[in-house]
Specification:
Length: 331
């Protein structure tokens, strides 16, 4: 099944006068959209180079390309060798898994496939199937040794979908900076990296989407966050789900239970210094739930977050960390 990433972050851009020329373009990559805006004195259109970058990135980290490095590892190809992209994402994933006590886990691919959110169609779910798949899920059972994946169980498979887009946004930002472009906003499927500022000195403005009851409902902005040399990623369950026998199942799988999470969180937006960190922790917090995530933030000052959660009667409320609140614009 082809995956579609959620448009949870909506860039809000304001025009202004400057000697630098504004360059802006959109496209499709990694099964989702991308939108990039930057200010460049030479007015260069770098979209062709960025398209080339996405193709190279996918040959490392995409589970939907059979010959990618991650796909070859998943199918136990002993000739596969990790490149720098694969290695960096793996190492950061392991670190986040350790920090979150396994709430973030890139080995959930067998479960993701079974529930129909991966690269295969869903299967008939029953407790016996979940129990059998849980034996394949544990980030501690996979190591990267001399650029080779070593698995405790050959049936274990990796999935970078919850972290790779944030890293691709970081890498595009690095590409722009290498060309002398320091004022940019990079949005890859809702994982956004903003650097520098607009020519008038104001920060980049990024909207967080308001939750809706149905996947096809119109989109609107719930709040606006200012970005300056930082990244914002959002994870949510209210658009990507399926209904079976009257039960609504979200796409966020709890690595410890094997089932989609069931709690009050509708979406999490994480503010961090880079996209890969924001992306990973947005997913981790969706698994952990509101209370555990708030407690986690108390001991991790480098992270800020905005939570949207539901009440028993269907209304929704928000909780925002102090650092995030300072970067938010009242609507």
């Amino acid at each position: 099944m082809k995956y579609i990433y959620l448009l949870l972050l909506v860039p809000v851009l304001w025009g202004c006068k400057s000697n630098k020329q504004e360059v802006s373009f959109i496209g499709m990559a990694q099964g989702t959209y991308y939108a990039i805006t930057y200010f460049d004195e030479q007015g260069r259109n770098l979209q062709p180079e960025i398209e080339d970058f996405f193709r190279e990135f996918d040959t490392s980290a995409s589970i939907y390309i059979p010959h990618s490095i991650i796909s070859r590892f998943n199918h136990n190809d002993t000739s596969a060798v990790a490149d720098d992209i694969f290695t960096y994402v793996f190492n950061v994933s392991t670190e986040v898994s350790e920090q979150t006590d396994g709430a973030f886990d890139i080995t959930t691919m067998p479960l993701t496939n079974a529930w129909g959110f991966g690269f295969t169609d869903s299967t008939k779910i029953d407790p016996n199937l979940i129990d059998s798949l849980l034996h394949l899920v544990n980030y501690k059972n996979v190591k990267l040794v001399n650029r080779k994946i070593v698995k405790t169980n050959p049936g274990t498979m990796l999935d970078y979908n919850a972290i790779a887009q944030g890293y691709s946004a970081d890498m595009i930002g690095d590409m722009l900076k290498s060309k002398g472009i320091t004022d940019y906003l990079v949005d890859v499927g809702g994982e956004v990296v903003g650097h520098g500022s607009k020519p008038d000195g104001s920060y980049w403005r990024v909207g967080i989407e308001k939750p809706t009851e149905h996947a096809g409902d119109a989109r609107s902005v719930e709040s606006v966050v200012l970005l300056n040399n930082s990244a914002l990623a959002t994870s949510g369950n209210y658009r990507k789900f399926f209904i079976k026998d009257g039960v609504r199942y979200s796409h966020t799988i709890d690595p410890k239970t094997g089932y989609p999470v069931k709690h009050s969180l509708l979406s999490v937006s994480v503010l961090a210094s880079d996209g890969i960190t924001a992306d990973a922790y947005a997913t981790a917090f969706m698994v952990m739930g509101l209370e555990k995530s708030i407690e986690f933030l108390k001991t991790h000052p480098g992270l800020e977050a905005h939570f949207i959660y539901s009440l028993p009667k269907g209304e929704y409320k928000t909780w925002t960390s102090q650092g995030m609140e300072k970067m938010m614009v009242k609507q």
